[in-house]
Amino acid sequence: MDTPRTLYKITPDSPGTEAAAEAAAALSAASIVFKPIDSNYSSRLLSQSKSLFEFADKYRGSYKDSCPFYCSFSGYQDELLWAATWLYKASGDNKYLTYVSSNQGWSQAVSEFSWDNKFAGAQTLLAKEFYGGQKDLSKFKTDIESFVCALMPGSSSVQIKTTPGGLLYIRDSSNLQYVTSSSMVLFLYSKTLNAAHMGGVQCGSVHFCASQIRAFAKSQVDYILGNNPMKMSYMAGLGSKYPLQVHHRGASIPSIKDHPAKVGCNDGHSMYYSSSKPNPNTHVGAIVGGPDSNDQFKDLRSDYSHSEPTTYMNAAFVGSVAALLARKESESECSQ
Length: 336
Description:
By secondary structure, the protein is mostly helical. The chain is built from 12 helices and 2 strands. It has helices at about 15-35, 40-60, 75-90, 95-100, 120-130, 140-150, 175-195, 210-225, 250, 265-275, 305, 310-325, and strands at about 200-205, 205-210. A two-stranded antiparallel ribbon has the order 1-2. Strand 1 and strand 2 (about 205-210) form a beta hairpin. The protein is globular, with a radius of gyration of 21 Å. The model has no long low-confidence stretch (mean pLDDT about 95).
């Protein structure tokens, strides 16, 4: 690659609380994963996470003020709660629990969980702590149940519509990012309800038990993998029908084995972007933006809102599939 890959950094004079706090959350989560495997590495991750969180909190300033792309629109309070929550889970240090408890006024009832808005994620984790005895975290439990009620079809307070085929439809641009993340949250919260022996969530006049919440989340995974009006898998390479013109340079430009000559940055656009042919390379496992609000999908490379894959779609989808694979415990059906 011979195109510029400019490095951007945040400093006390040019802060980016969202970026620092999000990195802190990621390192804390990773430290939990590595703790039983490599305790020294786990400790390094946790130490760096603490430093990043202190930086994020001390030098508060939104990344959107100077960012080149993927700017924050929701502010940095969600990332600070997100980071502090993961730090508490990773370290067990009560100062992080005190931090989220003292700042629970920041928490908002939302109807999406995304790269920009982490409130629902933090609320899901903190609701589990609430059911574990931390009763001063009740606002987080209330807020995550508002999230559930905003998504569940038939809820008295539903905010998010579904397509005729049953897919959550939050917004047109890469809609599956919100579907995969919402499904993951619903799986996690249904598991929390079961573990706490809670009946479910009351959404106005309608009650949803944990198994109903979980079943709806599973329906979203099934839709993405082919149970939809188009009978199409929205994961490249899976099944007999999937997107063939994924909006991705690595998929749409021939490999060096087939095309040894150099392909310049502009060449990639002029020679391959508008091609009507299927991609020469299958981007196996990549989830694209998905269908429109009527369950229709035009397999066009140029239609990036629907044909572009992203890490934040696949990452959340892995969480949902892991929840389905990990299900060992028996779950009681809704009482009639």
